[in-house]
Design brief:
- By secondary structure, the chain is α/β, with parallel strands linked by helices.
- It is built from 11 helices and 12 strands.
- It has one domain: TIM Barrel (Alpha-Beta Barrel).
- It has an 8-stranded parallel barrel, surrounded by 6 helices. A two-stranded antiparallel ribbon has the order 1-2. A two-stranded antiparallel ribbon has the order 10-11.
- The protein is globular and about 50 Å long.
């Protein structure tokens, strides 16, 4: 049966402008890191993608190395675009990135023009698209002149391979420098994609969030549930085997969740119950409370998780005492996981 999108798909989602650009994103976007690799079959993936689009999620976020294995997420999403989403291409935002390791040799990662241009071409082939809506430099490269990295991004727009460009995991000083260069090239960045959650506030401590507000760059937060920690599953004895991002999770101590993190999650759960929300809904609402935030990226494995996450949009308002209670609950478990290069 041919897929037909829900007629009411735009009635409940809110859309926020990306900085001072003309681009709007759904308040919640769907990220394909980890959960849509080679082990996910087409029917299972399409079930979630179509439910997300039917709920007004128009933005699907990828990167060249998303999988596993690397490239698998783009290939899978490309199949969905070709078979079911093609009539809706102009209603959908597809983003990709380059910067983390993708192939062997000296050109398979970081921020050289060689890497970014080749990676974008490879991503377009896997996705089966003529262009991506947003293409990011996935991380700052301290060994490549930033001018080279930013000029490569600008050239992708001039070539019609990307409509907009952004940066990801860039600290404040590098964010300001990237904005200056891209603006000089005539292609100012529309989005910054950092990690951000109630347990990881590095963009506040580093003032990256303030820089983005000043410069007119939108922010789309990844890991708003702190890599699954703020789902509460680990406090309920969830298995760490196969946990998302377990190898670089700042909330883990060897193979266990740090006790201070567990205590913070328990405190957040009490606040969520008092608000009539699930813990993930509270965590997402906390991220989206800030006007600088354009969107929050969720990574879900099931329809149940998707629908629960979307429920966060029903209550994004906080009383001052609620925010103070969240700060107090999270204080012992905070991790200032600023990007390191």
């Amino acid at each position: 049966m041919t897929y037909q999108a829900a007629p009411a798909r735009y009635e409940t989602m809110s859309y926020r402008r990306a900085g001072r650009s003309g681009l709007k994103l759904p308040a919640i976007s769907l990220g394909l890191w980890q959960n849509f690799g080679g082990t996910r079959d087409y029917p299972g993936a399409f079930e979630i993608f179509s439910a997300a689009f039917d709920a007004g999620i128009t933005h699907f976020d990828l990167a060249n190395n998303y999988g596993p294995p690397p490239g698998a997420a783009e290939e899978l999403f490309g199949q969905v675009m070709a078979r079911d989403f093609r009539p809706y291409r102009d209603e959908i935002l597809v983003s990709s990135k380059a910067g983390y390791r993708m192939w062997d040799g000296p050109y398979g990662e970081w921020g050289s023009r060689k890497n970014l241009v080749a990676s974008c071409d490879q991503s377009l082939k896997r996705l089966g698209l003529d262009y991506v809506d947003i293409f990011y430099s996935h991380r700052y490269d301290p060994d490549t002149p930033l001018e080279e990295t930013m000029e490569a991004l600008a050239s992708l727009v001039r070539q019609g391979k990307a409509l907009y460009v952004g940066i990801s995991n860039y600290p404040e000083a590098e964010t300001r420098a990237a904005h200056r260069l891209l603006t000089a090239f005539g292609v100012p960045p529309v989005l910054h994609q950092p990690s951000y959650s109630a347990l990881n506030r590095w963009i506040e401590n580093d003032h990256t969030i303030d820089a983005c507000a000043e410069l007119g760059i939108g922010i789309i937060a990844f890991s708003p549930l702190a890599q699954g920690v703020l789902s509460g599953k680990y406090n309920r004895g969830g298995n760490l085997v196969g946990a998302r991002g377990i190898s670089n999770n700042p909330f883990l101590d060897a193979a266990r969740i740090k006790p201070e993190t567990l205590a913070a999650v328990d405190g957040m759960a009490e606040i969520a119950r008092a608000r009539g929300q699930s813990l993930p809904q509270l965590a997402l609402a906390w991220v989206l409370r800030r006007p600088e935030l354009t969107s929050a990226l969720i990574g879900v494995r099931t329809l149940e998780q998707l629908h629960d996450n979307l429920g966060a949009l029903k209550n994004l308002d906080f009383a001052p005492e609620e925010l103070a209670a969240i700060d107090a609950a999270c204080a012992p478990g905070l991790s200032d996981s600023k990007p390191r290069f």
